[in-house]
Amino acid sequence: MENKKKSFSHFDDAGNALMVDVGAKQETERIAYAAGSIKMSSEAFELVESGSMKKGDVLGVARIAGIMAAKKVDELIPLTHPLMITKVVIDFDLNHQENSIEISSTVGIFGKTGVEMEALTAVSVAALTIYDMCKAVDKSMVINNIRLLKKTGGKSGIFIRK
Q1: Fewest C-beta atoms under 10 Å: which of 83, 97, 116, 138?
Q2: Rg of the chain's alpha carbons, rounded to an integer?
């Protein structure tokens, strides 16, 4: 078995940035799962949970923001492809012990390239939206641990974070 050296795909042999040519790739179902969290004060957490934050339904707005962000990744991150994604799901898990909200996203496509960046961007923008809507109560919130959990489809197959 040949040991092929991994390299960055967004550079040509001369080191110039390029958009990867996916024209010859097989279309397959591809799904990416990402997560991250935002930790806040108990006061802010209680207002989010009860739906009493002055700006309204924080998690509802953050869900829509995450979905919208997943659809616009090609406008935000250079060298990504415009994609016709088939689904975006944003979920929230409230952790009362930590006063934190775990944000997860699932993004799917039937296409020639993966949706990892879309899933990660969805989580990031959902977290930023929560921050924006809660900053009047708590400016010390911390967004962290944004990561790819799993991806399926494509030539490289399945990735699962250990």
Answers
A1: 97
A2: 18
User: Tokens at residue 9, please?
Assistant: 């795909």
pLDDT in tens, 4-14: 566 666 667 77
Contacts of 23 (CB under 8 A, 6+ apart): 112
Distance, first Cα to last Cα, the chain: 25
Provide the whole-model pTM.
0.89
Is residue 31 within 8 A of residue 155, CB to CB? The reply is no
**What token pair was written down for 150?**
């799993």
Can 93 be counted among the known catalytic residues? no
CATH 3.40.630.10 corresponds to the domain 28-155: no
* Residue type, position 157, single letter: G
